[in-house]
Write a structure and sequence with these properties.
Elements (H helix, E strand, L loop, with lengths): L8 E4 L6 E3 L7 E6 L2 E7 L8 E3 L10 E5 L6 E3 L5 E7 L2 E4 L11 E5 L7 E4 L2 E5 L11 E6 L7 E7 L6 E4 L4 E6 L10 E5 L2 E3 L3 E6 L5 E7 L3 E3 L3 E5 L5 H5 L5 E2 L8 E4 L4 E5 L14 E8 L13 E5 L3 E5 L7 E8 L5 E9 L40 E2 L31 E4 L7 H6 L3 E4 L30 E2 L25 E4 L6 E4 L1 E4 L5 E4 L2 E10 L2 E10 L4 E12 L3 E2 L4 E2 L2
Parallel strand pairs: 1-22, 9-16, 12-22, 23-25, 24-30, 32-33
Antiparallel strand pairs: 1-2, 3-4, 3-6, 4-5, 6-10, 7-8, 8-14, 10-11, 12-17, 13-16, 13-19, 14-15, 18-21, 19-20, 25-28, 26-29, 27-28, 29-30, 31-42, 34-43, 35-36, 37-38, 39-40, 40-41
Length: 586
């Protein structure tokens, strides 16, 4: 099989995306294990495919055979057709060969159900390809790689393998690998390879170039989060130039479940996401730089730039950022600019320590699809001002600051959360070209309107949000705006759900085992003012009605002294700012 992760084709991370061919050679040996024991097999041929025969001539019996390349005398295995394990070695000291790698370091495993069947080998390790260009190359007698957080990357390893999945190094015991040149010295402009366990270096890694006395001649340090992927050689040119490693930037990928307009960060660290629109894989063309539009901790406290996210960077394909060393909960918006300094897209970063939307999700009685346990942008799911979350105009992907209090007696009182740019900025739809394109280019502008329809758009568009997640959906990957009205009532988010009417400043939907808190967090009127904090709230759906949209309404009734709940209020103006509670996108 001619694939990037097989024994004969090893993926190499280069700007051209090329791959290094690895072919069998005459004399190559492999270990083969079965329930009846183990044997050494050897090939007299070569190429991308070849035939191995038993060295002992005795052969093996069994219904499942596990192969290990290269042959290692001390290797052992527990063989099972469903899940096997192999104890082997990734050499701590590896032989440095120009434009190649130590053949004893590149471990691969494969399997077959019959000894005469074809056995495809899959690479186990990751690696680093690098060249040297410093002035002291002739002094280097060894090159050592270590993780900056003490990661174990080589030595005695245990490999877990199943025919239905990729091999995984489940444990190892050495924290470094060292390359020693076969010829006695290294050379410039030659590729060298270090092989080690795939995984994450949370605090980066260090290359130490040592002389014959084992003293460091040059030390190059990468301080960024870095992930080395199985069967891929990452590539660094001039690795002995310290600034080259200092410039490396990587992060944990936030789009593992798909691209989105909102990404959740639940722990401190380094992160990245693609420069792509929600639901799309293509990178946005023409982006020249990125910036942070605003940050907030969801209170009225003035935040300094970098308090929620910091160290923003960009490389045409990904946006990179870190959290501060002490995670601070809050929200931020990152924007992408073109060469004319115009915003072409933006993304909401939702920082909420320990929050996992899947494990904390709630499925209401009578419903089949789970909802988030909190408002989009909220920092808690329990009654508090931090449960309010952010506001959205219907059909727009970008958030606006929410209310900073749980309750304000004056219906026209209340305070917006304060961001690093202040509170909220608005512009009249009568003074600008109120289109979707304008909204994209001005994600911080709440578009006010005096039109009877109350729509922020000059010409209404009813497809910006839908049951099938759209490019303008503000929810994280795997989630979307819910429906309040649908042909199939089981798809309606809030219909026929019980609620508690006695709670202050909000309601609990359902009762057992779910209690879902929905705060009366107010709303933004079409004039841009904050209203009804602690007295009313509305939650957007993707369901439209003529020129308005359906919302779920929670409202305190002064006449009854109780909370009222309306699962499908059909007259909410699209130019108002309301809350969002995301539903699982099946």
């Amino acid at each position: 099989m001619d694939q990037p992760d097989t024994r004969t084709v090893f993926g190499e991370s280069t700007s051209s995306g090329s791959f290094s061919k690895i072919e069998w050679k005459a004399g190559d040996r492999i270990s083969v294990f079965s329930s009846s024991g183990s044997d050494i097999f050897e090939t007299t041929g070569g190429g991308e495919t070849t035939t191995f025969t038993s060295v002992s001539g005795e052969g093996l019996s069994g219904s499942f055979f596990l192969g290990l390349s290269p042959y290692v005398e001390t290797a052992t295995a527990e063989v099972s057709s469903s899940n096997s394990s192999i104890s082997a070695t990734i050499p701590v000291e590896q032989v440095g060969v120009g434009d190649s790698f130590d053949p004893n370091a590149l471990i691969a495993v494969g399997s077959a159900t019959k000894i005469e069947d074809k056995m495809t080998f899959y690479n186990v390790c990751s690696g680093l390809r690098f060249t040297l260009s410093g002035s002291n190359v002739t002094k280097y007698k060894s090159i050592e790689l270590t993780g900056n957080d003490g990661e174990k990357i080589a030595g005695n390893v245990v490999i877990s393998y199943s025919p239905s999945s990729s091999p995984v190094v489940s444990s190892c015991d050495a924290t470094s690998v060292t390359l020693i040149p076969k010829s006695g010295s290294f050379a410039k402009n030659t590729s060298y390879y270090l092989v080690f366990r795939p995984g994450v270096f949370k605090k980066g890694f260090t290359l130490t170039f040592k002389d014959s006395s084992n003293n460091a001649v040059v030390t190059s340090k990468c301080s960024s989060y870095v992930e080395f992927k199985r069967s891929v050689f990452a590539s660094i040119n001039g690795a002995d130039i310290p600034s080259h490693l200092e410039a490396i930037r990587d992060g944990e990928l936030l789009s593992k479940n798909g691209t989105a307009n909102c990404y959740i960060v639940s722990k401190k660290g380094s992160y990245k996401f693609p420069v792509s629109r929600a639901t799309e894989e293509d990178y946005l063309p023409g982006v020249t730089r990125v910036g942070v539009l605003w940050e907030t901790d969801n209170t009225t406290g003035q935040q300094t730039v970098g308090s929620i996210i910091t160290k923003l960077a960009f490389n045409k394909q990904h946006v990179y950022f870190d959290t501060p060393s002490t995670l601070k909960d809050g929200n931020a918006v990152i924007v992408a600019y073109n060469s004319a300094n115009e915003i072409v897209w933006s993304w909401h970063i939702w920082v909420c320590g320990g929050y996992d939307p899947v494990t904390s999700s709630q499925t209401y009685t009578g419903k089949t699809v789970a909802m988030m346990d909190r408002n989009l942008g909220a920092l808690t799911s329990s009654p508090s001002p931090l449960s309010n979350g952010l506001f959205y105009q219907w059909g727009r992907k970008d958030p606006f600051p929410g209310a900073a209090e749980s309750y304000v007696a004056d219906p026209e009182g209340g305070h917006f959360m304060v961001t690093t740019k202040g509170t909220i900025s608005s512009v009249s739809s009568e003074s600008v070209e109120a289109t979707v394109d304008y909204a994209i280019a001005h994600p911080d502008k709440f578009i006010t309107t005096t039109k009877a329809s109350g729509d922020w758009l000059a010409a209404s568009v009813s497809t910006l949000w839908a049951q099938t997640k759209t490019v303008y959906d503000p929810c994280p990957a795997g989630w979307r705006i819910p429906a309040a009205v649908a042909d199939d009532s089981s798809q309606e988010a809030w219909s026929n759900v019980s609620y508690s009417s006695s709670d202050k400043y909000g309601v609990y939907l359902d009762s057992s085992p779910v209690r879902a808190w929905y705060p009366d967090n107010g709303y933004i009127s079409t004039s841009g003012a904050l209203y009804m904090v602690g007295q009313q709230s509305l939650y957007w759906s993707n369901s439209t009605r003529s020129l308005t949209a359906y919302t779920m309404e929670v409202k305190y009734s002064t006449s009854s002294g109780k909370q009222e709940f309306n699962p499908s209020r059909g007259s909410s103006m699209r130019g108002e700012g309301h809350s969002v509670r995301c539903i699982k996108d099946k």
